[in-house]
Amino acid sequence: MPAVPSANVVPHIALLLPLKSAALQQAAETVEQGFLAASKLQPSALPIRVYSCADETKEVAALYQQALANGAMAVVGPLTPAGVAVLAAQPSIPVPTLALNRIESKGPEKEKLYFFGLALEGEARQIARLANADDSHSAIIVSTDTPLSRRLVQGFTAEWKRLGNNIVESKTFSNDNTIFADLPADPGTMVFVAANAERARMFRPFLNAVLPVYATSQVFNGNTNTLVNYDLRDVIFVDMPWLLQPDHPAVMVYPRANPPLAIDMERLYALGIDAYRLMQLVADNRLAKGLPLDGVTGNITLNPNHHFEREATRAEFRQGLGLTKEGLAALKAAAKAERAAKSAPASAPAGATKAP
């Protein structure tokens, strides 16, 4: 049944989110908050109208049609992979539409449908490229028995092998650190950790110290969590500029949520900011000039399948902090200055005279 247009059809940007879902309400509200914050900073010619639902798999098709009937000139959402799959299966996508998650295939070619999200599989592929660029060509994989961990391993492995590298060991951690006793430590070997911070900190000390260790943003819970960060010393990871580079000019321009959010919600708030910015490029047909986008979630490009790819910022745990290369350089400079100050000869006290 076609949607019934409202009495006053008004051109607008439609934001489709599961704001009525008990499980997803907080996440949806946070994305909305970031989206609206960006819109106030860079106003659009079109107003924003928010469309709420409780179950995207059951409601998103009708909600999308209702938004079109109400005059939507562009649509952002839905948020979940299942909701995006339903949207992608629609017979027609007549207006620029930015889904806030990704699926493997969008079915029949729909040139106005785009995908953008924070899937960690993309970070796993990025880690494979980073380690390869660091001259590692053999990998040891440490995972946990969770669906997300398995997806990260799959993403990393596919990219690692595409680059011509090999997997020499694969371990599943289940609170038994003896599995790390005989890991190979040949030159050019690295460890990919597909685990969150709480799990990774349990086995990090048992990994051979000569092996470089890499992980996704799963291991970073912010720079206030110093005890966990100390346990993850020297682990190389990636995360968004919003969290790692708060003083970056492209980040500072956007307002922070008040009161501050938990770190997972901060990531969704940043998703909302960049979703608004990308929709502006899509709706105004400015992708060619606007990309790559220096986003708060990362450096954003577009692949041939209409997926916006997000290159996150590289960082490393040192002295209880997750630091970018600039932060690491500042830490090194400070340590050098401290050593120089300690080794400098003490100056004579004012007014002192030499002994005859």
Tell me what the structure shows:
- The N and C termini lie far apart (107 Å).
- The protein is 38% helix and 19% strand.
- It has helices at 25-41, 56-69, 81-88, 120-133, 147-162, 197-203, 226-231, 241-244, 249-252, 263-283, 287-290, 325-343; strands at 12-17, 48-52, 72-76, 97-99, 113-115, 138-143, 166-172, 189-194, 213-215, 236-239, 293-294, 299-302, 308-311, 313-318, 321-323.
- The chain contains 12 helices and 15 strands.
- The strands form 3 sheets. It has a 7-stranded mixed sheet.
- With 356 residues, it is of the alpha/beta class.
- The protein is globular.
- Helix 1 (25-41) crosses helix 10 (263-283) and helix 4 (120-133) packs parallel to helix 5 (147-162).
- It folds into 2 domains: 12-115 and 255-295, 3-Layer(aba) Sandwich (Rossmann fold), CATH 3.40.50.2300; 121-240 and 312-326, Rossmann fold (3-Layer(aba) Sandwich), CATH 3.40.50.2300.
- Strand 3 (72-76), helix 3 and strand 4 (97-99) form a beta-alpha-beta unit.
Number of domains: 2
Order of neighbouring strands in the sheet with most strands: 7-6-8-9-10-14-15
Termini gap:
107 Å
Biggest sheet character: 7 strands, mixed
Shape: globular
Count the beta strands: 15
Helical run tally: 12
Instruction: Please identify the top-level CATH class of the largest domain.
Output: Alpha Beta
Which CATH architecture of the largest domain? Answer: 3-Layer(aba) Sandwich
Beta-strand proportion: 15-25%
Q: Which percent bin holds the helix content? A: 25-40%
How do the strands and helices of this protein lay out in sequence?
Elements: E1 12-17, H1 25-41, E2 48-52, H2 56-69, E3 72-76, H3 81-88, E4 97-99, E5 113-115, H4 120-133, E6 138-143, H5 147-162, E7 166-172, E8 189-194, H6 197-203, E9 213-215, H7 226-231, E10 236-239, H8 241-244, H9 249-252, H10 263-283, H11 287-290, E11 293-294, E12 299-302, E13 308-311, E14 313-318, E15 321-323, H12 325-343
Parallel strand pairs: 1-2, 1-3, 3-4, 4-5, 6-7, 6-8, 8-9, 9-10
Antiparallel strand pairs: 10-14, 11-12, 12-13, 14-15
